[in-house]
Amino acid sequence: MEIRLINIGYGNIVAGNRVVAILAPDSAPIKRIVTEARTAKKLIDATYGRRTRAVIITDSDYVILSPVQPETMAARFEAEEEEIRSSH
Hints:
By secondary structure, the chain is an alpha+beta fold. It has two helices and six strands; from the N terminus they run E-E-E-H-E-E-E-H. The protein has helices at 28-39, 70-87, and strands at residues 5-9, 12-15, 19-23, 43-45, 54-58, 63-66. The strands form two sheets. The chain has a four-stranded mixed β-sheet, with helices on both faces. A two-stranded antiparallel ribbon has the order 1-2. A hairpin with a 2-residue loop joins strand 1 and strand 2 (12-15). The longest helix is centred in the last third of the chain and has 18 residues, at 70-87. 16% of the residues are buried.
């Protein structure tokens, strides 16, 4: 299986095939997930001090904060999938 790399903002890249979900950070359950990840030392803050616009959950229970909108990241995933399909 190929590793798909997805830009999550400011030059930060995540292995796309390890991402389980990309969520908006506004709801109380998501805020709780972020707090729990911080306590468990499984939080990666890739915002560079900017506002968190997306919370990425990985299959290894890491939580990544991103300054990029979830819709933008979803479009990047779609573009990557389309590129993979057209190359095969």
